[in-house]
Prior knowledge:
By secondary structure, the protein is of the alpha/beta class. The chain folds into two domains: 165 residues, VC0802-like (2-Layer Sandwich), CATH 3.30.2130; 211 residues, HUPs (Rossmann fold, 3-Layer(aba) Sandwich). The protein is built from 14 helices and 15 strands. The strands form two sheets. Strands 1, 2, 3, 4, 5, 6, 7, 8 and 9 form a nine-stranded mixed beta sheet that branches. α6 links the parallel β11 and β12. α3 packs across α4, α5 runs parallel beside α6 and α8 packs across α9. Magnesium ion binds next to loops.
Amino acid sequence: MFKAFLIKYAEIGLKGNNRYIFENALKDRIKEALDSLGEYYVSKEQGRIFIECPESYDYDETVSALTKVFGICSICPVAVIESSEWDILSKEVGDYVEMMYTDRNITFKVEAKRADKNYQYTSPEICIEMGSYLLNRFPEMKVDVHNPSVRFTVEIRTKCYVYSINIPGLGGMPVGSGGKAMLLLSGGIDSPVAGYMISKRGVSLAATYFHAPPYTSDRAKQKVVDLAAKISKYTGKIKLFVINFTDIQLYIYDQCPHEELTIIMRRYMMKIAEKLAEQENCLGLITGESIGQVASQTMYSLAATNEVCTMPVYRPLIAYDKKDIVEIAEKIDTFETSILPFEDCCTIFVAKHPVTRPSIKIIKKSEKKLDEKIDEMIETAINTVEVISIG
Ligand code: ATP
Ligand code: MG
């Protein structure tokens, strides 16, 4: 019955050139999302996007793909009526109502749009005429222009369209309408959610994972690859950088006080991720940190970690409780993968009593002990990075 979809998006704040960038990005993302499902024709029309479906297509699969595209406010499945001739049009709109609403104890309103200004009726006239046709044909239905339970929208263009269903989209901005950012992606629950949230604002992602073989296994790495693949269904392609962090971790372990280990390690992670981010033309870093979640995420620890970067660090989960993060992880289908019990490079080296109030001065003093080799080690880690294309 539905041969097309009308895609609505929020227009607030979209003016001039911004609007053009937003619309083109959204159109491209929709095309990508539908690419593997068949030959859809996607076009941009007066403040919305119109998708014409191939002759045979899978409705559920199509809707499911569209509900993963950021920037879509609602998805309206549309019945296409080939003729604007009034008798045909009104009958087919009636057939649509009959098929869609088996229980017709509903209140309704007809809304009309016409691109063809020479059409025999004006938009208000279409509403009145179509309303009375429907009342005649379905006497159990009632008109309510203020608060109807169903709105039938009839559009008259070269062809005609009728729709009454609004499937909510994800909202946000289409990926590619913002810049790019580097996500520090671990195998945990938080960082995939953080990446998803920033990407929802239109930002495309690259990602860095710090791997410490043999302390972290290939399965732990595979888990990160799987998580990147899961979020790439929303964010689009992700270039994943896998840094071998073992030597740096062992060196820190050898030279620095163990209660400062996590903080110092995190500082080097940020430094390395920032260098990769610069190479990749990213405009910021993203982490899954949340105030107070663990010792390395107190306000003191965050200040110490942050101090090594000049790039903005985006922490979308900063004020989230774990249960709220888990809720999003479940929604985007990363949770089950995140809780697989493979060791994380940080848990291997965690001290029994990590500092919770690190002083940047003291941390910097401890890091002095790394002066001899650390720059070279960072360079080696970056030069030997493994790059995996996801999505
Ligand atoms: P997550 O659930 O995202 O692993 P977490 O609660 O385990 O977070 P930490 O281990 O303190 O928290 O890490 C904080 C943030 O640092 C993570 O959200 C992630 O962005 C980054 N991070 C931690 N470990 C790694 C790693 N091995 N590779 C890349 N990024 C990491
Ligand atoms: Mg972690």
